[in-house]
């Protein structure tokens, strides 16, 4: 079978260590199917791909590729919301309604919030999967520090959390640390006195080291269509602190692999609760978080992709 994976990106798709979430998902899926098929991963429309009659083209978030390539099946892998006005603005709307497209959504939330006007020939949900670095991670409850993680690349809600950290959490637990990844901040040095550290982008290997020695991740979930970061954190034994909205509602079980809060005022209470968990309760929630993440191991999610491509 000839399979083309297309992802619009400025990254070098073969430089694996530098790839972001959507790119690394495409890369891993491409590598898996490459074993027994003619498979290409690209971020450019070239004569090479235009000269092949493809059996399947899988495109992430971009339907315009279907205007150019010859293929029997068109699969749109939707990671983000695609409202009508957004698809028009990005010049995708007519491509979406012109072609017979199968849609793969990464969550039920995304499926439910994508307009039926697109008239996809098929709508199915296949969750994202863990990058291989997060499979079979050995966790230890005894090396957990009073570290809390923010690694979602969205700033909405972070300023509210920083105020609570500075005014409440830091004063109660001066040795607690907030590690912020994926966001750059020029005021970094001013926040160090409150044990708030901005790291920007870091390799996944470094991120895993921080995850394995931390107590919890904060992922409020204002506009998450899946939140791979949360699953990666769970794979390292981290429970998730969240409002439990959007797609996070599907992956967080309160007091089992995370803590659902109702307002910002609850953040201080939950952080206090996590820091003061006894050894048995800490071990339990670390274990439950790790166990839940196993659902999203690549070998489990690939069964759904394999069924979609070869058993339809």
Characteristics of this structure?
single chain; 312 residues; alpha/beta; Rossmann fold; 6-stranded parallel beta sheet; 13 helices
Give a quick summary of the entry.
The protein has 312 residues and is of the alpha/beta class. The chain contains 13 helices and 12 strands.
What is the helix/strand order?
Answer: EHEHEEHHEHEEHEHEHEHEHEHHH
Mean pLDDT comes to: 91
Q: Report the span from N to C terminus.
A: 14 Å
Q: What is the CATH superfamily classification of the largest domain?
A: Glycogen Phosphorylase B
Give the oligomeric state: single chain
CATH topology of the largest domain: Rossmann fold
Just give the CATH class of the largest domain. Answer: Alpha Beta
Give a description of the structure.
By secondary structure, the protein is of the alpha/beta class. It has two domains: about 1-130 and about 295-310, Glycogen Phosphorylase B (Rossmann fold, 3-Layer(aba) Sandwich), CATH 3.40.50; about 135-295, Glycogen Phosphorylase B (Rossmann fold), CATH 3.40.50. Helices cover about 35% and strands about 20% of the residues. It has helices spanning about 20-35, 45-50, 85-90, 95-100, 110, 160-170, 190, 205-210, 230-235, 250, 265-275, 280-295, 300-310, and strands at about 1-5, 40, 55-60, 70-80, 100-105, 120-125, 145-150, 175-180, 195-200, 215-220, 240, 260. The strands form two sheets. The protein has a six-stranded parallel β-sheet with strand order 2-1-3-4-5-6. A six-stranded parallel β-sheet has the order 9-8-7-10-11-12, with helices on both faces. α6 crosses α11 (about 265-275) and α9 (about 230-235) crosses α12. The chain is elongated.
